[in-house]
UniProtKB/TrEMBL annotation, chain A:
Glycoprotein found in the keyword field: no
Protein name: AP complex subunit sigma
CDD domains reported in the protein's UniProt record: AP1_sigma
Annotated gene: ap1s3b
Protein's organism: Myripristis murdjan
BP-aspect Gene Ontology terms: intracellular protein transport
TrEMBL record, chain B:
InterPro entries assigned to the protein according to its UniProt record, in alphabetical order: Adaptor_Complx_Large_Subunit, AP1_complex_gsu, ARM-like, ARM-type_fold, Clathrin/coatomer_adapt-like_N, Clathrin_a/b/g-adaptin_app_Ig, Clathrin_app_Ig-like_sf, GAE_dom
Gene name for this UniProt entry: AP1G1
Location in the cell: Cytoplasmic vesicle membrane; Endomembrane system; Golgi apparatus
Segments forming domain GAE: 642-757
Lineage of origin: Eukaryota, Metazoa, Chordata, Craniata, Vertebrata
Entry protein name: AP-1 complex subunit gamma
One of the protein's GO biological processes: intracellular protein transport
PANTHER family attached to this UniProt entry: ADAPTIN, ALPHA/GAMMA/EPSILON
Tagged with keyword Kinase: no
Keywords: Cytoplasmic vesicle, Golgi apparatus, Membrane, Protein transport, Transport
GO cellular component labels: AP-1 adaptor complex
Annotated PROSITE patterns: GAE
SUPFAM superfamilies referenced in this protein's UniProt entry, alphabetically: ARM repeat, Clathrin adaptor appendage domain
Family listed: Belongs to the adaptor complexes large subunit family.
Pfam families: Adaptin_N, Alpha_adaptinC2
Length: 154, 762
């Protein structure tokens, strides 16, 4: 299973954190520090895999964001690159030409999309269309209820 | 009343902060406003406020005061509230907080909600962070949803079940019925998560594993359909249909086929098909190939298939893509033990990877190269590895040097080659060599008797060049001390003997003593080497002078050695030749690991002369050898005896008392016995008092003890001198009384000592 997924900028600012096992707050902070330090220190044309503690770290840079995924020993690193790519595609479809600012201003949406794609450290849905449709339907549910309640969207 | 700022407004505002302090101020202000809003139980804007709190949490600020608010949002009827509430719960809460249990009822209700997206939220939250108690309470609901026909919910329920099983393995049984027709699903999401669920169950329970073996044909069929089916827009990734599902199925097949001949045979064809037909131009194809190779290597595949798999890895090694090369090296490292010959065929490609620019690849290539070294390829491989050692980053040098030593020890084609290899490592990576290699190398050199002259000459020349690399300097010093006579006599056969005088050699060793580059340990080696040369060189006076100078060295170690060596010159000169004699050949231990050095204060083990005899049986060979080496390296001379062996007078409850003997005083009727008390238990023995009584014809004098605490775990000894006058030369007997405090309780014991060696009283 995947242990955690982090998104951070080139300056090391965290944009998303998903933890698939219970981790104390202090430990999370330490891991984030370690990951950002290690990944940002990598030379430009290095391979995308690192060893850290007993985990395999797979990272990939998309524009100004680093995507960093922690795997257990049995997990397939090459497939993990495809997982990261799939997540970026989902974000791209939803936001239309996604960029870091979209993730910053709509972080909750990034989480909602992630939660339709992965769950409990495993892949939940392998079809792009189904994930997109689920998100769109949930969004519509949100607005419908808001309209019904005649209250402003948050 | 002004509504609180919207989420995106706040984000925009915070991003205008130019300093950390400014940001902190803005956030504190907003947090204060949010806190009062929470206190006022404002329902309308709770969602907005929690969302803002989550943003600030991501920036690293505390948000625990929002935990209860998340629960309130989850309990709300509005979908927007629930969405943010569950997100907040997943980010701010975990099973460590008692608060999380309050979610259980909400989740239970939402699992039965009429809207599938609400059910989805509940399943997701439970499946991500549900504690064991929550899982126990809600497992039944999850099991129900696992049987629904709604594929959206079914796939989520399957992963939720996986989480439940991980948290509460005993609940696995209850999900068994629901797995009956999971694989008949057409929906890929359900298929994928079902395979994950089945994998989890098989990995955890041998019974489940046997039960699910019957699914192999079905899994093979599904995989075949994926490969053979035409283009499917919904699942296509670069021309491959649902690679995620393919990889997951391959992984489950691996588990089912492991140690089972029938299952392995049933999957043989499909594995061969995937291995040969998968498109390798893109990463996604290689991801599938990689998983296939892992499966082939792990099940009971026929040899042809295994060779196919290793060859795929060999091709991976030549791929332009670094990631694929890295993965190939990792996989080959896993299989090198079981399929050694197949991996050997790719040796030259692997060795080429040592020159790769990527650090991760270099490391893997190094590890794999060492695994491939054997008696046949040792010369060629060592050439490559030594070249690698020369040029690699410092982070590799220590491991590489250790690897070279191990490989050389195992497969050296000749002693000369072995010494040359060691020399090469010491001179090129000498400062990175691990400290524990030094005694190992010394032992090796000692045992290569015919190479002594050659070795000491080469090491001497290396010292002339460079005295900065401590391991090299230490080994060289030791050799010069040991074989200095061969050095000055110009006896080398292997190469042109050098002309060097005794004074030149002593110059070099003295130079080490004064150099700033030498560590205290190195200085110890140098001083001891100089001392040993006193029996090999004729310039004894010069050596005496050096030794006496260091008798007042500020370095306590050096000072002690010098004082003892002085004593050797002055009082025990007749023993000096015997003590400083050539080292005997040491037994080789079975392991290839470095020799353990037993650090002692020199008082509790057999004295120097005893090392000529076979080591006592009670001590493990490793430790004794370490004792020998440390004694020769340090040549701590304590408690010399002149032919009377030491004895164990008492050994009970972890307290051991040894007697050593001296008769180094004018009166032959007086035996000087030194007691050495050591403590092998975990707690110190304090208030330790040793008393002795002798028969009437004897007289006894007990001098002050060194201390009255015997430290735990043999970390030190208490010594005390007893003088026994025995004018009638009667057989020595003694009654001893021991008192001490151990773990808070007083201990007292009496014992008779009757096993005195005859020489001690005759």
């Amino acid at each position: 299973m995947m242990r955690f997924l982090l998104l951070f900028s080139r300056q090391g600012r965290l944009r998303l954190q998903k933890w698939f096992t219970p981790t104390p707050e202090r430990e999370k902070k330490k891991i984030i520090r370690d990951m950002t330090t290690m990944v940002l220190a990598r030379k430009p044309r290095s391979c995308n895999f690192l060893h850290w503690r007993d985990l395999k770290i797979v990272y990939k840079r998309y524009a100004s964001l680093y995507f960093c995924l922690a795997l257990e020993d049995q997990d397939n690193e090459l497939l993990a690159l495809e997982i990261l790519h799939r997540y970026v595609e989902l974000l791209d479809k939803y936001f239309g030409n996604v960029c870091e600012l979209d993730i910053i201003f709509n972080f909750e949406k990034a989480y909602f999309i992630l939660d339709e794609f992965l769950m409990g450290g495993e892949i939940q849905e392998t079809s792009k269309q189904i994930v997109n449709r689920s998100i769109e339907a949930s969004d519509m549910l949100q607005e419908t209820m808001e309209e019904y309640m005649s209250k402003p969207a948050f | 009343l002004v509504p609180p700022p919207r989420l995106r407004e706040l984000i925009r505002t915070i991003r205008t902060a130019r300093t950390q302090a400014e940001e902190r101020e803005m956030i504190q202000k907003e947090c204060a406003a949010i806190r009062s809003s929470f206190r006022e139980e404002d329902n309308t804007y709770r969602c907005r406020n929690v969302a803002k709190l989550l943003y600030m949490h991501m920036l690293g600020y505390p948000a625990h005061f929002g935990q209860l608010e998340c629960l309130k949002l989850i309990a709300s009827q509005k979908f927007t509230d629930k969405r943010i509430g569950y997100l907040g719960a997943m980010l701010l809460l975990d099973e460590r907080q008692d608060v999380h249990l309050l979610m259980t009822n909400c989740i239970k209700n939402d699992l039965n909600h009429s809207t599938q997206y609400v059910q989805g939220l509940a399943l997701c939250t439970l499946g991500c962070m549900g504690s064991s108690e929550m899982c126990r309470d809600l497992a039944g609901e999850v099991e129900k949803l696992l049987k629904t026909s709604n594929s959206y919910l079914r796939k989520k329920a399957a992963l939720c079940a996986v989480h439940v099983i991980r948290k509460v393995p005993e609940l696995m049984e209850m999900f068994l019925p629901a797995t009956k027709n999971l694989l008949s699903e057409k929906n890929h999401g359900v298929l994928h998560t079902s395979v994950v669920l089945l994998t989890e169950m098989c990995e955890r329970s041998p019974d489940m594993l046997s039960h699910f073996r019957k699914l192999v044909p079905q899994l093979v069929r599904i995989l075949k359909n994926l490969i053979m089916s035409g283009y499917s827009p919904e699942h296509d990734v670069s021309g491959i249909s649902d690679p995620f599902l393919q990889v997951r199925i391959l992984r489950l097949l691996r588990i089912l086929g492991r140690s089972d001949d029938d299952s392995s045979e049933a999957m043989n064809d499909i594995l061969a098909q995937v291995a040969t037909n998968t498109e390798t131009s893109k990463n996604v194809g290689n991801a599938i190939l990689y998983e296939t190779v892992l499966t082939i290597m792990d099940i009971k595949s026929e040899s042809g298939l295994r060779v196919l798999a290793i060859n795929i890895l060999g091709r991976f090694l030549l791929n332009n893509d670094k990631n694929i090369r890295y993965v190939a090296l990792t996989s080959l490292l896993k299989t090198v033990q079981t399929d050694h010959n197949a991996v050997q065929r790719h040796r030259s490609t692997i060795v080429d990877c040592l020159k790769d620019l990527d650090v991760s690849i270099k490391r893997r290539a190094m590890e794999l190269s060492f695994a491939l070294v054997n008696g046949n390829n040792i010369r060629g491989m060592m050439k490559e590895l030594l070249y690698f050692l020369d040029s690699c980053d410092p982070e590799f040098k220590a491991d590489c040097a250790s690897g070279v030593f191990l490989a050389a020890e195992k497969y050296a084609p000749s002693k000369r080659w072995h010494i040359d290899t060691i020399m090469r490592v010491l001179t090129t990576a000498g400062s990175y060599v691990r400290d524990d290699s030094v005694p190992n190398l010394i032992q090796l050199i000692t045992n290569s008797v015919e190479m002594h002259a050659y070795t000491v000459q080469r090491l001497y020349k290396a010292l002339l060049d460079d005295i900065s690399q401590q391991p090299l300097v230490q080994v060289s010093s030791w050799c010069i001390g040991e074989y200095g006579d061969l050095l000055v006599s110009g006896q080398c056969e292997e190469e042109e003997p050098i002309q060097v005088t005794e004074d030149e050699v002593l110059d070099v060793l003295e130079g080490l003593l004064v150099s700033n580059l030498s560590t205290p340990v190195t200085r110890g080696y140098a001083l001891t080497a100089i001392m040993k040369l006193s029996t090999r060189f004729s310039s004894v006076n010069r050596i005496k002078k050096v030794v006496s100078i260091y008798g007042s060295s500020i370095d306590v170690e050096l000072q002690q050695r010098a004082v003892e060596y002085n004593a050797l010159f002055k009082k025990y000169d007749h023993m000096r030749p015997a003590l400083l004699e050539r080292m005997p050949i040491m037994e080789k231990t079975a392991t290839n690991g470095p020799t353990e050095i037993v650090q002692t204060n020199g008082e509790t083990e057999p004295s120097v002369l005893d090392t000529k005899h076979p080591p006592p049986v009670t001590q493990p060979a490793n430790q004794v050898r370490g004792v020998i080496i440390s004694k020769y390296a340090g040549l701590h001379l304590c408690n010399l005896y002149i032919g009377i062996p030491p004895m164990t007078a008492y050994n009970k409850n972890g307290l051991k008392i040894e007697f050593t003997f001296e008769r180094a005083n004018p009166n032959p009727n007086i035996a000087v016995i030194t007691i050495h008390a050591s403590n092998s238990t975990e707690a110190d023995m304090t208030d330790f008092v040793f008393q002795a009584a002798v028969p009437k014809t004897f007289q006894l004098q007990l001098l002050s003890p060194s201390s009255n605490v015997v430290p735990a775990l043999n970390q030190g000894t208490v010594t005390q001198v007893i003088r026994v006058l025995n004018p009638q030369k009667q057989q020595l007997r003694m009654r001893i009384k021991l008192t001490y405090t151990h773990k808070g309780s007083p201990v007292q014991d009496l014992a008779e000592v009757n096993n005195f060696p005859p020489q001690s009283w005759q």
